[in-house]
Design a protein that fits this description.
Layout lengths: L13 H16 L4 H8 L3 H8 L7 H11 L13 E7 L4 E5 L4 H10 L6 E4 L6 H12 L3 E4 L6 E4 L11 H5 L8 H5 L4 E5 L12 H7 L4 E6 L2 E6 L6 E5 L5 H12 L3 E6 L5 H12 L3 E3 L5 E6 L7 E3 L5 H13 L3 E8 L4 H9 L3 E4 L3 E2 L6 E8 L25 H6 L4 E6 L6 H5 L8 E6 L2 E6 L7 E3 L4 H13 L2 E6 L11 H6 L4 E6 L1
Parallel strand pairs: 2-14, 3-13, 9-10, 21-22
Antiparallel strand pairs: 1-22, 1-23, 3-5, 4-5, 6-8, 7-8, 10-12, 11-12, 14-17, 15-17, 16-17, 18-20, 19-20
Length: about 525
């Protein structure tokens, strides 16, 4: 096994955490305990634990001994970064308990929203993923102070009076669509500004027009020139404003909410998304002194403030898409696992649909998340004989089935008796990526760019697959490999790190056999 990291520019403690994560993954791939590794390299178990947590400096000599013991080149210096791949030994049941971590989408929105606050914002338990790192890179390029806590769990943000808009990190901005969510906060501070064209997953045409429609009532106009969005903000916006969104999109709603929060006046937003990341954003804004009526509904009435200077702490809620990913791992491997800290309000339709397909599961009583607002439960899935649903499976805006959870039903349907139609009406390209399941033995037929037919049950078998260029389908292929007997290889898996923190290492704790290697 070869597993190599090249150091990249980030906060000072990040390289130690990166190396620690690689050592932990390589050790687990070799099925060694910390004590066994410590014995091989001549150090203590507690030292190995600190190294894996990224809380202890490590000498080149010790790093070399660890690399030899694990038969893995942990770190390379000055070399071009190599492609990362996963080798999976599938066809085994999982077991144990795993906790859902904080929401990627909420974390990104909250980082953007922190631009509105002149005081201190501390976000606790924020997702340590590539998408978050890219937004932080953009923030820092604007002159914002973003400092991680020593344990890498929390981030403290201080925004200067004047942002260095001309110094924006163009490269980081182009690699994430989330940079669009700077529009709302910035239009409250500047008459003109520019943002780089946004990137992200390959999911077909994803127009920015709904964002522009949502923000025009706030005086924003956009001209696209030479790879940049050139923004101009008109000053004559009425104090009382009503905005009707033509698309009930999550990020579109977040942009409108932030634009409403940074103006003196009252804004009513209709056809708003009440989804989990929007609620997290509203809970944070309330701490900043913004009055928001109708949280959790499609009509929001927001009383904003043009000057915000508050010291606040906020804990993003848990991620329902990660919860669905982990539950799916147990379902497709016919295992009994417990997933804790599941945000049940945003998983009820998914669990009801799975129940209709024959899944046996139990759930704990509800308890509160760290933010005091989100309702959590623990869900245990049990080995079950699944059957296809009577009706098609399709997403809807919240409180319907989450669009990001839809792809997981493709691999679940492949484990069920009968035929299932999955209709992904939002993205015209994502369904195509799910046909890669056929490489592992599934019977998946593409009707058109939005619909697939899945017939089961599947006799999964190992194969080599190139990672789809879209986050959720990529994870779906990985989960199918856990069910597939024999050896599978998933190539070029860096996209998974955009939305998941150490997913493969965490699956290993449930008994999965996953090995990271590079070439």
């Amino acid at each position: 096994m070869e597993d190599t990291a090249t150091f990249e520019r980030t906060d000072p403690a990040a390289p130690l955490r990166q190396v620690g994560a690689l050592i932990r993954g390589a050790r687990q791939g070799r099925k060694l305990t910390q004590a066994q590794l410590a014995e091989r390299v001549g150090t203590s178990q507690s030292a190995i634990n600190r190294i894996e947590q990224g809380s202890q400096n490590i000498s080149i000599d010790l790093l070399s001994r660890i690399s030899t013991a694990l038969e893995s080149e942990i770190v390379s210096f000055g070399e071009q970064k190599k492609n990362s791949h996963l080798r999976v030994q599938g066809g085994r049941q999982l077991h144990g308990t795993i906790a859902v971590r904080s929401s990627k989408n909420a974390s990104v929105a909250l980082l953007c929203a922190a631009l509105m606050n002149r005081g201190r914002t501390t976000l606790h338990g924020i997702a340590r993923i590539v998408e978050v790192d890219r937004i932080i890179d953009v923030l820092r390029s604007l002159g914002v102070s973003v400092v991680w806590s020593p344990d890498g769990q929390d981030v403290e943000i201080h925004v200067p009076d004047d942002l260095s808009l001309e110094s924006i990190d163009e490269d980081a901005g182009r690699r994430t669509r989330s940079v669009l969510m700077f529009l709302g906060p910035l239009l409250g501070r500047y008459d003109t500004f520019a943002l780089p064209y946004a990137g992200g997953c390959d999911l077909g045409t994803r127009t920015v027009e709904p964002h522009l429609i949502a923000l025009r009532p706030f005086g924003l106009s956009i001209e696209a020139t030479a790879g940049w969005y050139q923004a101009t903000v008109a000053p004559d916006v009425p104090e009382e404003l009503t905005v009707v969104l033509t698309e009930r999109g999550d990020t579109v709603t977040e942009n409108a909410v932030m634009a409403a929060a940074v103006r003196d006046g009252v804004t009513t937003i209709r056809n708003a998304s009440p989804n989990y990341m929007v609620q997290d954003l509203c809970f944070y804004l309330e701490l900043l002194g913004i009055t928001i009526e109708g949280i959790g509904s499609t009509t929001l009435r927001i009383t904003g403030r043009s000057v915000i200077n508050e010291d606040v702490d906020y804990w993003p809620s848990e991620d329902p898409v990660e919860a669905m990913s982990l539950l799916t791992a147990g379902i497709v491997t016919d295992s009994e696992i417990t997933v804790t800290r599941v945000p049940i309000e945003f998983m009820e339709i998914e669990l009801a649909t799975l129940g209709e397909m024959g899944l046996r599961y139990t759930r704990s009583p509800e308890y509160a998340a760290a933010n005091g607002r989100t309702r959590l439960v623990d869900v245990t899935v049990h080995p079950s004989k699944l059957h296809a649903p009577i009706d098609k499976i399709h997403p809807m805006p919240f409180p319907g089935l989450n669009i990001d959870n839809l792809p997981f039903f493709a691999v679940i349907a492949a484990c069920a008796d009968g035929d299932t139609l999955i209709h992904d009406w939002v993205y015209e390209g994502r369904a195509i990526h799910l046909t890669d399941l056929t490489r592992l033995g599934a019977n998946v037929r593409l009707r058109d760019p939005h619909r697939i037919d899945v017939s089961g049950p599947t006799h999964w078998s190992g194969a080599e697959v190139s990672c789809p260029p879209a986050l959720r389908p990529a994870v779906v292929i990985l989960l199918a490999m856990l069910a597939a007997k024999g050896t599978s290889v998933l190539r070029n898996v860096d996209i998974i790190a955009r939305g998941y923190e150490q997913l493969q290492e965490r699956l290993i704790t449930l008994g999965a056999s996953i090995e990271t290697f590079r070439d």
